[in-house]
From TrEMBL:
GO terms for molecular function: transferase activity. This is Prolipoprotein diacylglyceryl transferase. It comes from Fulvivirga kasyanovii. It holds the Pfam family LGT. PANTHER family: PHOSPHATIDYLGLYCEROL--PROLIPOPROTEIN DIACYLGLYCERYL TRANSFERASE, PROLIPOPROTEIN DIACYLGLYCERYL TRANSFERASE. Keywords: Cell membrane, Membrane, Transferase, Transmembrane, Transmembrane helix.
Amino acid sequence: MHPELFKIPIPNFLEGLFGEYFTIYSYGFFIVIGAISGVSYVAYESKKSFNLSFDKINTLFLLLLIAAIVGGKAFLFFEKPAYYLDHPSALLTGNGFVFYGSLLFTIPTMLIFFKKNKLPVLPMLDIMAITTCIVHFFGRIGCFMAGCCHGIEWHGPLSVIYSDPACQAPLHTPMHPTQLYSASMILVILVVLLVIKKHKRFNGQLFLSYLMLYAAGRSIIEIFRGDISRGYVIDNFISHSQFISILVFLAALFFYFKIKNYKKTTT
């Protein structure tokens, strides 16, 4: 599609430092839009419910950003450890993140932050579930523009073809638009969470519902993903992301009924 959204000419006296143009990349642009939207939602909800200061919200997002980068790169390393041991610089590029790595590193970061700041953990996790959907939705749009997380070759009516050499997807090849599948799935999950929010039966329900819904949807979308370099747990049968999805779904299901049943026994 369009990995470079637009370019801004640099004044002549600054060309020696920055070149002729300042480039706005699509992926980064949509990530920023998602982050701003996510911060705004957390600020609104946490201020309304828990009177959380904006400074603490900024601190939370900074910690989550660090955890997401570390986690995304850590899981990327374990997909091809031999390669990255020989090419460690490949981990330092702006490309290549594993969403599940980011997610699983941010969860304990949130738990520690909430407990340290004496915030109710489960209600805050419910807020973060919707926030994650918002940020992730824009992130997948950025993926579509950049060509990463692309699908397998497909000549169907909804196939997409990348022609820009700057894209990360194979060029001039019709493919499943898996990034848009993911964005659509996340949008549906967001709507479902907003409906659940109005009829919430226990704290933590939104967060655990998000984990189960995303894990189930991600397992299906993986079938159409074409970036096979991520590897398989069982060759050509279960990918790393599908395996992690199974574990996440089962863990979330366990805690869902555990918390739900605990609430019943205490009411």
